[in-house]
């Protein structure tokens, strides 16, 4: 029998996530699913988007009713803020392990997902990242690591190939933000660009908290490249593109999914229309149930989804699907069931390879027209 203190903690958690009290009264078991993303800091808008997707799924599942192993289950989303910081990420990962979550949706960044993955692996807890693209994440030999997006080893070559063949880029200056994500994306792009005959004029580094890019932009202006490729997030990529334009840099601004957000125009201003970026997943408008997801997300949160909330939504359903197939809420049995996942959700069909990567990845390429993110092309991997 659960002691009084544990029952109070569960009741408080349920209240935080606005679950009907009736669910508490009739649930035989409360099951925690962890979620981690930066909910504060420069990319909190992306972290909140991820959290919203997971929240929406949990609310839907509880409303429909869930039974596992003959027990009525109430899900609680145990959401944590890692602030995009690797050290904080390991601290909140340990907190989730200690709170006995059965699986984790997260983290958002590669630089937080990778260090946290060791703790989840040691605990035998499934970790599904909806957005971490660095290949290292699933190459560590852990059985617990899964992701719902393509990798930088797929994303960066697709971007390089597009700008070489369609935009006829012959030279590029590369800048990264010194994070695992930014460095990995930039390195993969440089490798593929060189193979395609694009001349890499320089490769500079900034950091993910930088606000002044004028020195780097001035240096690049002197190099006169056809394009600048930036490995980083929109919180820094937007101001970088804006400042480069203000200094008279005419080069195309290339970036990956960290920059490729619908809200980029608020950060980059008029320079947004000079951006071409890739996203390590299918475009929302091409997803089988993209329109329906957009409608219910907008109704629930008052604004459209941003980037990877469809993946966090599907991640929760994939975890529940594994529970159903295992007929258990035991983390070990959920982990065993994850390997044979074949789930059809908002993002399409999810089947994992032996490392936990998608077997059917998609890369989407975008440009901005009068500040609006617009699909250019989709590439199946």
UniProtKB/TrEMBL annotation:
CDD domains named among the record's database cross-references: PBP1_ABC_LIVBP-like
Signal peptide boundaries: 1-27
Keyword Transport assigned: yes
Annotated Pfam families: Peripla_BP_6 (PF13458)
Keywords: Amino-acid transport, Signal, Transport
Domain Leucine-binding protein: 31-356
Family in the record: Belongs to the leucine-binding protein family.
Name listed for the protein in its UniProt record: Branched chain amino acid ABC transporter substrate-binding protein
Taxonomic lineage from the root: Bacteria, Pseudomonadati, Pseudomonadota, Betaproteobacteria, Burkholderiales
